[in-house]
Write a structure and sequence with these properties.
- It is built from 6 helices and no strands.
- The chain is mostly helical and 300 residues long.
- It folds into 2 domains: 112 residues, no CATH class; 165 residues.
- α2 packs parallel to α3 and α5 packs antiparallel against α6.
- The chain is rod-shaped.
């Protein structure tokens, strides 16, 4: 029983099919395994058609089972065998043989087309699955980049808010310090004016001891001036300490914000590097693995 194209493709390697083709005198050995198998089937049919009518067809040793000895066993001339009585006269006729050959040729072509369509369908499914995975990964990367941008935007808003709060706090500290200093000076001037007024009234009433009173007033004036200077110094000192604390807190917050921004930038670079690595892996798969799969599927 003759082998079909599908049986030749599945049972034999390409090397064995090429040896069969050489044994049958086929010059062109290119194309896929299915095309090579079709050429072998057609060469066998042509050899059968050339055989004399009424004589049994000569069968050479199966080249597919012993490819290395096919050339040695091919006789230079057809060997003479004893003719056998035909079982069915109609089956041995030329017209019936041609009809059978055309029928088998059509079956082989349909089988080859079905094999090719199946291969193309499987490859299309694999490419669709790969494209779907790539699209899903790209979508996830876009979502990650959007989240990073949102985080950076929120960090900037937080930094601006903290800067505004520190600025307002410093202004409030300066205003409160200035206000307290002015209130202290006002109280001091009021007390001084009150004391001067009382001293003048006492001088006018006493009419004597002007020198003692003047000395006392000078001492009190010096004490009041010293007290005012001390109050101013203490107020300025407290104001400077408040400003130092504000600057230290502001510098600390700025440093923390810069470190956070640096970490966000490092995370963004790492995500970018992973995206590039995934793209390179996909390109490598498309260039190497897909081609390798196609060669293995068609050529064995």
């Amino acid at each position: 029983m003759e082998e079909t194209v599908e049986e030749l493709v599945t049972k034999h390697t390409r090397r064995e099919l090429e040896e069969m083709a050489v044994a049958l005198g086929i010059q062109s050995l290119g194309g896929t395994k299915a095309q090579l198998a079709e050429s072998i089937i057609e060469a066998r049919k042509r050899a059968q058609e050339k055989a004399p009518v009424g004589k049994p067809e000569e069968r050479a040793e199966p080249a597919e089972t012993m490819p290395s000895e096919a050339k040695k066993e091919m006789p230079s001339k057809p060997s003479e065998v004893k003719p056998e009585a035909p079982e069915k006269p109609l089956g041995r006729g030329v017209l019936a043989k041609e009809e059978e050959i055309r029928r088998k040729s059509g079956e082989l072509k349909r089988a080859g087309a079905a094999i090719r369509e199946e291969g193309v369908g499987r490859m299309s499914k694999s490419v669709s699955a790969l494209k779907k995975a790539i699209d899903e990964q790209v979508s996830e990367n876009k979502k990650g980049v959007a989240k990073i941008r949102t985080g950076v935007r929120q960090m900037k808003l937080s930094i601006n808010k903290s800067t505004d709060e520190f600025r307002k706090s410093g202004e409030r500290i300066r205003e409160e310090g200035t206000k307290e200093l002015n209130e202290g000076l006002k109280i001091f001037r009021a007390d001084l004016d009150k004391q001067i007024k009382e001293n003048r009234e006492a001088i006018s009433r006493m009419g004597s001891g002007a020198a003692d009173i003047r000395q006392a007033m000078d001492r009190m004036s010096i004490e009041f001036r010293n007290s005012g200077a001390r109050i101013r110094e203490e107020g300025a000192k407290e104001l400077n300490e408040g400003l130092k604390i504000f600057r230290a807190d502001l510098d600390k917050q700025i440093k923390e914000n810069r470190e956070a921004a640096s970490k966000m930038s490092a995370g963004a670079r790492e995500l970018h590097a992973r995206a590039i690595s995934f793209r390179d892996e996909v390109c490598r798969y498309a260039e190497q693995d897909v081609g390798k799969y196609i060669r293995e599927f068609y050529y064995g």
